[in-house]
Design a protein that fits this description.
By secondary structure, the chain is an alpha/beta fold. It has a single domain (about 1-210), classed as 3-Layer(aba) Sandwich (Rossmann fold). About 25% of the residues lie in helices and about 25% in strands. The protein has helices at about 10-20, 30-45, 55-60, 120-135, 160-170; strands at about 1-5, 25-30, 50-55, 65-70, 135-145, 150, 155, 170-180, 200-210. Strands 3-2-1-4-5-9-8 form a 7-stranded mixed sheet, with helices on both faces. The chain has a two-stranded antiparallel ribbon with strand order 6-7. Strand 2 (about 25-30), helix 2 (about 30-45) and strand 3 (about 50-55) form a beta-alpha-beta unit. The N and C termini lie far apart (about 40 Å). Mean pLDDT is about 85; it is low at about 85-90 and about 90-100. The structure holds S-adenosylmethionine.
C-alpha cells in the first residue's frame, strides 16, 4: 500500500508508513526539510519513499494512485505570530504570549502558513485536498490532523470548515479522534482579566472516498423494469 502526505515537512508520515511496511510519498516546499527527512529515515534504516520538493498544488497530478492520505497542514499563519512569550518557563504551568523562537516554514508565496487571510488559507487547502482526492482509491481513507486556533484573536472552528469542504469535494466524514496534549499548560490566557483557554488537543479528522453506488434496477413485478 502507498501512503501520501501532501504537507510532509520533516517526514514523520514517511517514517511511520515505512515502519508499518507501507510505501510512502511526501510533498513539501522546503528542500531543507527533505534533508531532515532523508536523515531521519536513513538513521532508522528505511528507504521505501519518495520525497517531492515543491508545491502540492502542482505536484499531486503526477503521482500514482494511493491507498491512504494522512497529513498535518500548516495551522494557517500562527507561526508568524511574533509576540514574545515563553513555553519553557522553568516548569511552571502557564505561559504568556505566543511561541518563542519558532519560524514560519518557508517564505514561499504558496506556503499555506504564509496566507494573511484565513478564508484564502481554507480555499488553498481545499484545492490541494481535491487534487489528493483524485489520487485516492475508492473506499480508502484520509486523515487530517489540525487543531482549532484563533484568527485575529477570535476562536475559529477550523474543524467545521475542513469537514464542510471535504464533504463538498466528495469525501464522507467518518468522525474525529482527539489527540490530547497533556504537556501543554492548562492555565487560561488573560487570567484574571479574561478567561481564554489554551488549546490542549489536535483533531484527527477522518474521511473516506466512497465507492460509486451500483445502479439499482427496480422491477415493477410484471417483468417490466
Ligand atoms: C505542519 S507542517 C507538517 C509537519 C510534518 N507532519 C512533519 O513531520 O514535519 C506543514 C508543512 O507543509 C508545508 N507546506 C505549506 N504549504 C505547502 C504547499 N503548498 N505545498 C507543499 N507543502 C506545503 C510547510 O512548508 C510545512 O513543511
Amino acid at each position: 500500500m502507498t501512503v501520501l502526505d501532501p504537507f510532509v515537512g520533516s517526514g514523520t508520515t514517511l517514517l511511520a508508513a515505512n515502519k508499518l511496511g507501507r510505501h510512502a510519498i511526501g510533498v513539501a516546499l522546503n528542500p531543507d526539510y527533505k534533508n531532515v527527512a532523508d536523515k531521519r529515515l536513513k538513521e532508522n534504516g528505511y528507504s521505501d519513499y519518495f520525497y517531492i520538493v515543491g508545491d502540492a498544488n502542482d505536484k499531486l497530478e503526477a503521482i500514482a494512485p494511493i491507498d491512504y492520505i494522512v497529513t498535518s497542514p500548516p495551522y494557517h499563519n500562527i507561526l508568524r505570530n511574533s509576540s514574545k512569550g515563553t513555553r519553557h518557563n522553568n516548569g511552571k504551568l502557564y505561559r504568556m504570549g505566543a511561541r518563542d523562537g519558532l519560524q514560519c516554514y518557508t517564505d514561499h508565496k504558496n506556503d499555506l502558513g504564509n496566507f494573511e487571510n484565513y478564508v484564502d488559507f481554507i480555499i488553498a487547502l481545499r484545492e490541494i485536498m481535491s487534487k489528493a482526492f483524485l489520487k485516492l482509491h475508492e473506499g480508502k481513507y484520509c486523515s487530517i490532523i489540525i487543531s482549532d486556533f484563533t484568527v485575529n484573536k477570535a476562536e475559529t472552528c477550523v474543524q467545521a470548515d475542513i469537514v464542510r469542504f471535504m464533504q463538498e469535494i466528495g469525501f464522507v466524514f467518518c468522525g474525529t479522534i482527539v489527540l490530547l496534549q497533556t504537556v501543554k499548560p492548562l492555565y487560561p490566557f488573560g487570567y484574571p482579566y479574561a478567561y481564554k483557554i489554551n488549546h490542549h488537543h489536535q483533531n484527527i479528522m477522518n474521511f473516506m472516498k466512497p465507492k460509486p453506488e451500483k445502479t439499482k434496477t427496480i422491477s415493477n413485478g410484471d417483468g417490466m423494469q
